[in-house]
Amino acid sequence: MITKKTNDESISPYAYSSPALAAFRKLHESGCFILPNPWDLGSAVYLHHLGFKALATTSAGFAFSRGLPDSASALTLDAVLTHIREIAGATPLPVNADFQSGYADEPEGVADNVKLCVRTGAAGLSIEDATGNDSSPLYERANAVERIRAARTSIDESKIPVILTARCEAMLVGVPDPERTILDRLAAYADAGADCLYAPGVRKPEMISAIVKAVAPKPVNVLISSPLPGLSLAALTDLGVRRISVGSALARVAWTSFIGAARSIAETGTFDALEGAVPFSELNSVFKA
């Protein structure tokens, strides 16, 4: 990755790039776009090669690449910031940072960490309301709203207009009546200053439509992490969705191929599983020095 030195830290050459920031904001204004999730520099470069207009980091994909589980406690804040900075510097595309819960419980800590995230060169970042605690899996509502408000204030004070996405994790953590919680919280997060709203795990078209209406006119992100009949780009566009991400899915697809081939070699002592691998020359021609 090409970087330039600014005082004591490396900053992406695309950091504070008005074209990337403007392009990302423009994508959220109309239509629907796919926001694929690379997990390392090579996957980011290849997604750019395929013509995608923006990228997003994936905490799970990054964690798995480091031999760690997808947990905010498993990855240090410094490691995450370095990873976001690297992905943001890998291509000129705008990048949304999966910033998990902001790596802090209280609004003040979230604000401080968001300030650091903005400096990585990301064009957007997401903050979720999951605590990682089984006994109380979501931050108490008032605190969750103030955490988004603090992130908004931190971004505004930076004067770098990154897109703030607020996530409600109710569908993933098993709270009672998750749909009601999602609609209530996403509307509150929109009022607190979130630019884009997101509830991973929502799969029903009628619920997706309800979310779009609850936070309108602000854009909505939908996660597609496995094939869902009827939920194509065209169908989600018709539902009013503005942004589609795939989370850890691309990383897991890569792991699936790797595990299958490695397991076959280990169990059979043959190398038939290597048949059909992407040619060396094809990859080598994409990754320019």
What can you tell me about this protein's structure?
The structure is a single chain. With 289 residues, this protein is an alpha/beta fold. It has a single domain (4-248), classed as TIM Barrel (Alpha-Beta Barrel). It has twelve helices and ten strands. The radius of gyration is 19 Å and the shape is globular.
CATH superfamily: Phosphoenolpyruvate-binding domains
Number of domains: 1
Distance between the termini: 10 Å
Shape: globular
Helix content: 40-55%
> CATH topology, which one?
TIM Barrel
What letter string, H or E per element, gives the SSE order?
A: EEHEHEHHEHEHEHHEHEHEHH
Please outline the major beta sheet: 8 strands, parallel
Cα Rg = 19 Å
Count of alpha/pi helices: 12
The averaged pLDDT comes out at 93
